[in-house]
Amino acid sequence: MQSRKKTVVINPRTYQSFVGPQHTQFHSVRKGLEEERAALRGLIRAVGHTPVLFEDFSAQTTPSRQACLDALDSADVCIFLLGPSYGHVFPETGQSATHDEWVAAKTAGKPRWVYRKLGVTFENAQQDFLDQVGTSLADRIRRAGVVKNSAALTSSSSREHAIVGISVAQPRFDAPQHGELVEVRLHKSGQVSLRATLPRDNMGSILDQDALSQQVTSLLRFSGALDLIHNERIVVAIGVSNPQMTQVDRFNPHQSRTRAYLSAC
Questions:
Q1: What are 224-249's pLDDT values in tens digits?
Q2: What is the CATH T-level fold of the domain 7-133, as seen in this structure?
Q3: Which residues contact 183 (CB under 8 A, 6 or more apart)?
């Protein structure tokens, strides 16, 4: 099957690119990024895609700023290239064009990549914007306040998702253990997956309805604190990875069970 070419749209404030066999949109400020902008057309064509710059919208009846925002609908991945200048602040939003486009892409659930120019001094507003958009998944997890400072975080990524593994303490084998968050996975589609252990004791993992309700509530709050999902409607799916080895029972955090029976969940 022949893949369809991507279209790259370049707008003056940051470079925002949508990667994959789809449309790609770039936004950048000319000031301080002249050389980078000049090189973009050739770079995008070299990888088999069609570059579209912000200037290409100027002949349309729709204002170019609005046309660029409208073009987000057909994009799949956003790449922002940030230079030293924040740009003109629009009174309607109190933000620059690029900042508006970032918000629009985030609200639409578009995957976003951020690149910054090195060796330059950023304006205060641009530095604030960079701090906002450049926060890593691991940093977001730390800031959410759920993971202990002593817990080690291990980051990895692929073309499909970014993963942060969270180390957990290893208590005595016979000590009851509450369920703990062990992994956060951010998919390029915008989906967020959380993996956590169930409560357990020396007899194995326990599916306790009351404990599960509390754990799911805690994980949903944590997911919200990550500030990654901004869609009006979301779907929550919950699964048990190994139901054959999970026992439906009551969890006692103070005492392990003396007997248990495996049951299908």
A1: 888 887 777 788 888 888 888 888 99
A2: Rossmann fold (3.40.50)
A3: 163, 164, 165, 166, 193, 194, 195
